[in-house]
Each structure stands twice: as C-alpha cells, then as structure tokens.
Amino acid sequence: MRQPSTHKLLLTMLFFALLAPAALAHQPVCEFADLTARAPWRVPDATISYAYFGNVYPRGDVDYFRFQAEAGQSILLSLSIPAIPDQAVFSPVMAVYGPGITDNTEAQLPASLAIPAGQSAMMVPLGAEPVYWFEPFSRKYFWNWDDYFFQAPESSTYTVALWHPEREIGRYAFVIGQREVFGGELECYESYSSYWTPLEEGVNPYRDRGLEMAFDQAPVVNLQLFPLAGGGYNVRVQTLNFTFTPQNIDLDPVPGEGHAHLYVDGVKIARLYGEWYHLGGLPADAEVLTVSLYANDHSPFTVDGIPVSDSLLLVDMLGGDA
Q1: What backbone torsions phi and psi does residue 181 show, to the nearest 5 degrees?
Q2: Virtual torsion, Cα 120, 144, 44, 68, nearest 10 deg
Q3: What residues are paired with 63 via a beta bridge?
Q4: How many other CB atoms are found less than 10 A from the CB of residue 53?
Q5: CA dist 26 to 20, 29, 134, 175, 317, Å?
Q6: What Cα–Cα distance (Å) separates residue 184 from each residue in 21, 25, 68, 218?
Q7: Domain 211-318 has CATH 3.40.640.10
Q8: Cβ–Cβ under 8 Å, residues 49 and 27
Q9: What angle do CA 201, 257, 62 make, to 5 degrees?
Q10: d(Cα 309, Cα 292) in Å, to the nearest integer?
C-alpha cells in the first residue's frame, strides 16, 4: 500500500489543527454517496456529536441514519440548514422509527418509506420556525431548528429518515449526539464550503455519479433468496437490459454490461458474475439483502442519480431467523 508523503501528512495535521475549534463542536461527515434504506449512514457512536452534511436529491429522495441506543438513553437529534444567499430556507422533515416507539400523532411518511414489521415511527418535532445563526469558527450562517432529545424505549437499533414533504431538493446538516470529540472527515472539511451553494435540478451532487441511464434504457434487476434444507441460501439475480461480462472486468464501461455487488445491511459481501450465487449464511441480526448493478469499470448504473438495485427485507422473508 502506498504511504502518504510526509509533506501531505504534515499539511493534513495542520489542517485539522486549524479547524480544531469547529471540530470540537461537531465531527463533520459529508454525503458523497446518496444515503438509502439499504445503505444508511451508520452512526459510529450516538453519544458523540456528529454533523452530517447531506443533500435531498433527486426529488423525492429520503436519507437514512441508523444508530444504536440503550433503553432510556437520551439521544440528541437536530437539524440545521446552510443559509444559502438569496434562497429561501430549506425545510425538510424527519421521522425516527424502531421498536417500542409510541406517539400521539400519526407520522406522515413518504410512500417509499417502508417501516419493518414490529416497528413504529414518530415525527421528530423541529419547532415552528428556525433561528438564523452565525457559526463563528467556520464563519458561516445557518438556519437552526429546535433540538429534540429522543428517549430510546428499548435497547435496540433506531433509524432517522429525512425528506422534504413537497419533494423539493436542498442541503441540510443532520446533527446527532452531544459529546464533543475531536475528529471528522478530512474530505468533508475540504468540501465544506460547497454546502453553501444551491443544488441544481439535473446536476447530481454525489461523487459516485455512476453510469447514468435513461429510464427506458436502464438495466432492471430482481433479487430472490431461496433457503436450502441443508443450510445456506441460493441467491438469484434476474436482469433485463443487462448482460454479465466477467471477461471485461476493469475495462471501459459499456451500457448494459458488467457485474453485480451483493450487500447485507449496506456492507458488500460478494461480487456476482452470473444469475445464481450460493450464500453460505447470514448474520443472525441481518435486516436487508441488496443487489446493485455495476459497469465493467465498477461504476454503478444509475437512473436520476439512484443506483439500479433491488432489496429484500430479511425479517419479513425469514421471520427474523436469518
């Protein structure tokens, strides 16, 4: 593995040192790849203060954040909006779902958001109006909504979903946790200023833009899972407008040619070169199995910036016994 040069390492250390006051407020993380139900941002420690700079894009996008909490634990959930000049304040909403949640008001969820069996959801109260605020260390302005402290009813995994009710696009900073610990992503620091520029319709803000396809020409994928009597599973990946081409791996991308990646809860476990694949087993707590299609050069096939993929909820399919 190539080691970074001493010069670059020193610059990196200096960069973090200069931004230490801002880092002590929140550890910044940036949405370089679109968050989805199958690939949420997994919060490393919900007690540590993180600021996740994200994008609601394209229209109808829902971003997901998953965290662990102990019964009775109080977790800060908050939302700040970069104050972009000459643009009205962006006003997304948030819901949190998981086991044991009860609320007097029914959550108004988007149609694309599927709550797993045995879980329930509640809207995160954000207040009536955001407060305009100047952050002195970064010298940037925000619109800050009210803080909310989520009381975990059980020791379990919970998920925050974030979207715009009128399907508008825009930028946000999702804040979770209170404990100030130095850290964050260097790449996020370097691209920090971009979050004070407006999103543009048709201009994908994510780095993993992939091989964009028109809807009527894009590949289609269907995922099936067959438990075996002797243990393990057979995975079937059926496709349209797509051909598996293992002989062309690492070559130039060709529309409709390539391979697939298989994920368990957003973690890649295999690269697939054909319709059938034998899976020896699944983790006991596995929730979602996903397959996504990739071109020869490993670029994801996308439609409107969304990867071409299919997912199975293992809890529903296997009765919670993966």
Answers
A1: -135, 135
A2: -20
A3: 162
A4: 22
A5: 10, 9, 15, 8, 39
A6: 12, 11, 19, 36
A7: no
A8: yes
A9: 35
A10: 4
Could you tell me if residue 283 is left (phi over 0), alpha (psi between -120 and 50 degrees) or otherwise beta?
Answer: beta
| Domain 6-196 fold | Jelly Rolls (2.60.120)
Tokens of 294: 């990739």
**What is the location of CATH 2.60.120.380 in the chain?**
6-196
Q: What pTM was estimated for this model as a whole?
A: 0.64
Tokens of 270: 């295999």
Using CA atoms, how far residue 92 sits from 115, 120, 130, 138, 266, in Å, is 19, 20, 12, 23, 24
Q: In the structure encoding, which two tokens stand for residue 285, read together?
A: 């707590």
Residues 262, 268 contacting (CB under 8 angstroms): yes
CATH 2.60.40.10, the chain: domain bounds: 211-318
| Cα separations in angstroms, 238 against 27, 46, 130 | 41, 38, 47
| Beta carbons within 8 Å of 4's beta carbon, 6+ residues apart | 12
Mean pLDDT per 10-residue section of the chain, whose length is 322 residues: 40 42 66 84 93 93 96 97 90 96 82 89 94 85 96 97 95 95 81 90 75 89 94 95 93 91 86 95 88 88 86 74 50
Which tokens sit at 52? 């996740």
